[in-house]
Amino acid sequence: MNKLPRIALGLGLAGVLIGLAACQQAPQPVETPEATTDYCARMVTNSGGLDDRSFNQSTWEGLQQAEKTLGIEATALVSTNETDLSPNVQQAVESGCQMVVTVGWELAEATATEAAANPDTHFVIVDEVVDAPNVKPLVFQTAEASYLAGYLAAGVSKTGIVATFGGDAQPPVTLFMDGFVGGVAAYNAAHGTDVRALGWNAETQQGSFTGDYEDVSKGKTLAQGFIDQGADVILPVAAQVGEGAAAAALDNGNVMIIWVDNDGFETLPSEYRSIVLTSVLKNTGTAIQDIVSDDLAGQFTSDAFIGTLKNQGVDIAPYHDQAVAVSEELGAEIDQLRQDIISGAVLVESPSAL
Amino acid sequence: MSTETVLRPGWKVPIILGVFSLASLLLFLLSGRQGISVFRLSSSGEAVQLPALELPVMASGIVISVLLIGLAGFSAYRVTRAQRTPLYVIVIFGVLFMVGLLVWAFVDATLPVTGLLTGTVALSAPIIYGALGGVISERVGVVNIAIEGQLLAGAFTSAVVASVTRNPFLGLGAAMIAGMLVSFVLAAFSIKYLVDQVIVGVVLNVLVLGLTSFFFSQVLSEDKQLLNSPPRFDKLPIPFLSDIPVIGPVLFNQTVIIYIMYVAVALVYYGLFHTKWGLRVRAVGEHPTAADTVGIAVNRTRFWNVSLAGAVAGLGGAFFTLGSVGSFQKEMTAGLGFIALAAVIFGRWDPIRATLAALLFGFATNLQNVLGIIGSPIPSEFMLMLPYIVTIIAVAGLVGQVRGPAAAGKPYVKA
Predict the structure, then answer these.
(1) Residues B314-340: pLDDT tens digits?
(2) What class, spelled out in words, does domain B114-377 have in CATH?
(3) Where is the ABC transporter substrate-binding protein PnrA-like domain positioned along the sequence (chain A) (predicted)?
(4) Which chain A residue shows the shortest CA-CA distance from B225?
(5) What is the CA radius of gyration of chain B?
(6) Where are the beta strands (DSSP E) in B126-275?
(7) Where does a domain end: A140, A168, A196?
(8) pLDDT tens, A148-157?
(9) Is A215 on the interface with B (CB under 8 A)?
(10) ipTM, two decimals
(11) pTM exceeds 0.95 for this model
């Protein structure tokens, strides 16, 4: 009897230790190659971590690309919860690097504080605006791209009902939803149809949210609720919770999803490839590379970089397997609409726009 | 049903029921909503097609409100006779009130009844498993705060094992082992080393969260195709039963994990209250000294039953991955282990009632979903509170004071 708990404790801890030993060999993605200049950059993630299939990941990929092409040195500081944010930014600044990249609105306060204390360090904050002479905000007019996605969704929907939902009611999220609903309305106006967009009311700014970005089952049941109401194209704006919508769509057949931030056809598990209609892309990586390159050339400014269709900061992804669902006329209309938004003939409006 | 001895039933229950029935009446009279609510009882793919119910809002509202007032009156009558309000009255009241609310909310819209209930089962499943684990563990005298950790460990391990072996059943087994490993640590510290059980549980939750997040970003993301793309369980309709309208698709067109859940609830209930094993478990949890004197090995009983509790909770973790979406995600249990803990207490340490509590929470969550979809005038932030508000009202208003197993949380040291 006496031995039992000890054996148990041993078993439990052994599992943990084996696991820890195993990661000794695990390749460290934050490892840095040799630097060819003495320029270095530090990136601080929000609590999503580096593999969030969202802005942390794309920002980091941009910096890694800059390491290769521009010969800089970059390291990521991963925050696992809210209390890590401010110490991580501090640590990034103390590394003495010329550039500190912070990702997400949660880091706004820490970035502003450190930027004021260290006027010689250059900061970039992704998806948020901080007003300081040495902070460059990197934001995206995602409504422009999701407007195209909404138009497309309305065009391919067979039931005449499409849907969108978000993780929570934050401006970067509702911006997608405003654009989507606007695009559906534009399709209806152009074709005299009556396609309904569920899940978001652009006038009252009220809609459907899962309330968190973790519980994938919530995304699945919410998406199923939309499907029960007849929706056959769904745009989830909820990071990994969106994968629940993909699972619901796959279970039902004849339902497609539109992924956000990156090309879902590439980043989602391969079983979901057949149901990805398109994705609303935010090209954070390319933008970060451009900013680093400007900074190297001594041209850093605190003017916000606003990703638009015009500068290709945002766009929609290729249709991949679903190209058959998009008729030639519809594809041409989308291309025309893209040109109209770029030229300013069509205005995409959202209270969340910057 | 009631074995508790309450001397004077208070006026709390009839007052709460009265307030809700008046609220329902006022809702229908003052809002002046006219129109028809459609309750869709069958979806297109089913064998037996029921016609959709078309309920005129005002008339149904008044009928329902009158029935509610009647039930509140019955409850008050019972109190004057010094009798408790039976549970079935409260359940009927709750269901009627909900139907009334739905009729009001879905004016000129269609409510897919099966969708609402199927989603409820899906959202409740991990909570039910977690609550069963909690019931077993606490009944034997060890407070199980680590349900969240057991769920998460189960979700993680089942995803990895099922993905590598391409066999979801092996993943299910692995989830049970993972839950048990977490339980081993809880049991060893609380039984052998007499550490405060609440503290061990909290620490375990943080440990499992940290470990799984670490492995997720450092190991799983290296080769997602090999390590984190498990096959999911297919839906397995049970012949005949799945053809019953409404109930069939909701209960009998599910995955294996859900069927195991039905069996688990029944087994735990029967085992706890109708077998020798259950008697021993409860004796150890209520009065370990007495159990010891009649020759029950207290600490061994506690140890193995806490391990069993971990295995059950681990199964619930597998639902997140193999039963729902497939791949593991960081922090994907999202605090449901703590809701399961609340369900244990709300359910008065009884497996059936804890299951009902979990179902109530799942229902409120999915109700919030369907109300949001048809566009409710209530801001989404408030809508998201709905499941929690319902739980608070249910716990505080209808359950009231509860008493757990007397020796839960106290380590047993032989004098």
Answers:
(1) 999 999 999 888 889 888 898 899 999
(2) mainly alpha
(3) 43-347
(4) A269
(5) 23
(6) 236-237, 253-254
(7) A140
(8) 999 999 999 9
(9) yes
(10) 0.85
(11) no
